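User: two proteins, same treatment. go.

Assistant:
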Amino acid sequence: MSTKPQTARRIDWLPILLLLPVGVVLVLILIWPIVQGISLSFFNTRILNYSQGKFIGIANYNFLLQDENFWNSLRVTAIYGALSMSLTYLLGLGFALLLNRNFILRGFLRTIFILPWAIPEVVAVLIFMWMLDPQFGVLNYLMVKAGFIDRPLAWLTQSSLAMPALVMLTAWQQFPLAMLILLAGLQTIPREQYEAAMVDGAGPISRFFHVTLPGLRPVNVILILLLILNSFRRVTMIYAMTRGGPARSTETLSILTYNTAFEYQKIGYAAAVGTALLIILLIFSLIYFRAIIRSRSAA
């Protein structure tokens, strides 16, 4: 019985060579900073004596678990994420349902509603700081004239009002993203389902709960997780508006990491907080990618 000699399998180096520059760039600007940040969390170091850091093992993590500021920031992040996600989703859903109908100037309104998403976060903060100003703010003026309040409110200097103001700003700036995603989801729902529901005598509310929401389920999962991820990693908007105050009422984990590193000069502990935030984001990212795979398989 003769056997044919097995030829060695040739390796196609062209794809590897084409991907090599991208891989090197990713390692330099993504992987290496993450590794550096995690390694810094095991040192007691400051900006001024960065090269003289002392290895302290997991002491930063032990302190993190006992730090009231960390647990407060985690609670603030959860509240901010839940409120901003809910308001953003409701606004996006409302405008998506409106723009899904056929009427005059629908294309023009779509363009107008997308504008808040195109505005830079710092510019959006300046706009809202003017609107919320206790003396000259248009929001206080309208609320006083309408009789909702007796005197202007100091939105950004009161702990009970700073978070609602931040949530309003976030929802205003982010709802176009939710609107576009939900509008795309609405347009994938077959018209026949609505016609069958109307034949069965279902009204608008019944059609919304039994046809629209089930049809948006795959989109909803992805959108909600995406909004939560954005709230966890948001820095510029919160820092420009409140800097985490007043009295740490808006200090999310991202702001705590920034303040600890650059205001309190505790680079090692800030790296530990950032590593904890990274783990949380990785968990939500895994859930996000799993949701995407499920939605694709369901489609």
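Protein 2:
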Amino acid sequence: MPELPEVETIRIGLAGSVLGKTISKVTIRNRRIVVRPQPGRWPRALKAQTIRQISRRGKFLLFTTDHFRLLVHLGMTGQLTYRDKSRIDDPNFFVHPLTGLQKARQHAVDKHTHLSLYFTDGNAMHYRDIRQFGKWRLYGMEEFKQAKEYWSLGIEPFTSQYSWARFLAGLEGRKTPIKSLLLNQRFVAGLGNIYVDEALFEAGLHPLRLCESLTEEDKRKLFRSIPRVLKRGLRYGGTSFQNYVNARGEAGANQERLRVYGRSGKPCRRCRSPVSRIVVSQRGSHFCARCQPREPGIEGAAKSETKY
């Protein structure tokens, strides 16, 4: 699933391409991804609307037009790319690279392209989503206060919201495993499985450590590690394993710099012990048992369970 660095990378790429563009036509090919309003109302609502702003909150992209706000969540496999009519479509776009930066690529409409915004200059923005878990919502300006999925999000990294006081307040009274809390978008917005595992490694915390067992030093390490791993993801254009590409169809390169995520059985980059994998909150979780002991103050190899 695209997380904060990937969504922010897409936002930056789209801002350079679609800001100021006027929509001539909206085509919805799959009604499943449209939450509100009814798909039949979209073409009339968005026709002749100009995109004035593109922002991000957590894992959401928010497009602001003259009279509407378009809220997009990419789900697990959503791809939002810009199509330039002056360039040739890449017939191999649909065979995704696993690693490495690629030349800018764009695609023609295929069976997984569920929604398209066409602009008056002949160019377009396509939404492609193989697993169809992405969601699109259209709000009038006054209606946007009803967007609970947006307003209920937690503190936003890289903003004044991300303060030590608010971080501590979010941890107070929690008795769940720290990984479970970090996956909760009402605590810190934008984190997902990849960057949670990376932040916990940076902080030296086992994913099953209970929040109530964390010392003040543990909390400070975690508070600092979250923006650190997110900045690294942004610096290298996001993490690509299968489906993530930026607005120009390029894969990210951060997967080559991950410390633990996706590296089960491989040597820890810090101590060379094998990276372990367990399941926490129904998510595969990667950690180094030596660098991230389950019990506070205990170092050394910890037993790896299979499911929690």
